[in-house]
Specification:
2 domains, 5-stranded parallel sheet, Rossmann fold, 345 residues, 12 helices, alpha/beta, 40% helix
Length: 345
């Protein structure tokens, strides 16, 4: 099949999905933008546009790409967080799969304008199939014809550093957009309890990413502030004893599955799909339970235990979320929509 995958905001993850589909024989082209900090130079399989329709300079490149998309003549179109009305015309009449990541905005910064909801909610509702990455979001969204696909990390397997054994383990990490929904005050309270207790092994809590954190940070917390690229931080993330994904509001989390891919056990809350994706036996701690979170940090502070649980996390990722499983699920979704369209004549 010839597949057009339209993803202006999730470019690294869309690349992983495109490569998975290509590995099972599909011809995939990605329509995307430079909005994601991991974008980098355009690959041979990418069309890169500026998805800001109010900018006059964006129209000439759009018209060129529209001609090239029509020449490509995709058999199936996948749309993911499309917010530029011009991109609707690029989908044409081909069967379309809509990809949904979240059942609701995490915070006010993710709220969409009313006009955008009016235009795109109707368009998404007309898709032939909706893909979700967790049973939780699929149930919350309650849309018609749908399927659940394993959530992949947005880091290519080829970029993953070697698994870190006990002697190399150090520190805990909390990464990504450091916004209120990530429940950082409780994480810092739990960290202070752990650091003041008998199980602290000299580790730091490393915050990686941009955000607006009020007040002074507790002792033993290091903040690597600002946008980051995986190439610069994968080593820090891979040798961590645990990754804090203890969110106050969540659907599913790419940070959680990235930790699993790297062989690091996530520490999660019971919110959204976090427990659904958690490795067997991995810590799930109530949102406001700082003491319980500190206890989980105490356990993983032992480097041998961090290695043991890290292996469980990595094996779970391979068995549930690895490329063969993603490719099979996406390929089945592609076959499903094309067969349904043929049956309708």
């Amino acid at each position: 099949m010839k597949i057009l995958w339209m993803s202006p905001w999730m470019r690294p993850l869309a690349r992983v999905h495109a490569d998975a589909l290509r590995s099972v024989g599909h011809d995939v082209r990605l329509l995307t933008s430079d909005q994601h900090p991991e974008s980098g130079p355009a690959r041979h399989d990418e069309w890169v546009l500026d998805p800001r329709p109010k900018q006059a300079s964006t129209y000439r490149p759009f018209l060129r790409v529209r001609r090239e998309v029509r020449d490509f003549a995709p058999d199936v179109v996948v749309s993911e967080l499309v917010r530029d009305p011009r991109w609707i015309s690029l989908a044409g009449a081909a069967p379309r799969i809509d990809v949904v990541h979240d059942d609701r905005p995490h915070d006010a910064g993710e709220e969409r304008p009313r006009w955008e909801r009016a235009v795109f909610d109707r368009w998404r509702a007309r898709s032939d199939l909706t893909v979700f990455f967790s049973e939780y979001v699929a149930e919350q969204a309650g849309r018609g014809d749908r399927t659940v696909v394993p959530l992949s990390s947005d880091v290519a397997d080829s970029a993953v550093p070697p698994f870190v054994e006990a002697h190399g383990r150090r520190d805990f990490v909390l990464s990504g957009r450091l916004n209120a929904y990530k429940n950082i005050p409780v994480a810092l309270e739990a960290w202070a309890m752990h650091r003041d207790g008998p199980h602290h092994r000299g580790d730091e809590l490393v915050l990686i990413g941009d955000g607006d954190l009020a007040g002074d940070l507790p002792a033993g917390v290091r903040w690597q502030r600002g946008p980051f690229r995986y190439a610069d931080e994968l080593g820090t993330l891979a040798r961590a004893k645990g990754s804090l994904v203890h969110y106050r509001r969540a659907t599913q989390s790419g940070v959680q599955v990235l930790a699993m891919q790297l062989g690091v056990m996530p520490l999660v809350s019971p919110e959204g799909a976090l427990p659904e994706l958690q490795p067997p036996g991995g810590p799930v701690v109530d949102v406001d339970d700082a003491r319980g979170l500190a206890d989980a940090l105490d356990v993983l502070a032992d480097p041998a235990e961090a290695e043991r649980q890290g292996r469980v996390a990595r094996d779970t990722y391979t068995q549930r979320h690895g490329r063969p499983h993603v490719a099979a699920a996406l390929g089945e979704a592609i076959s499903r929509v094309t067969a349904a369209r043929r049956d309708r004549g």
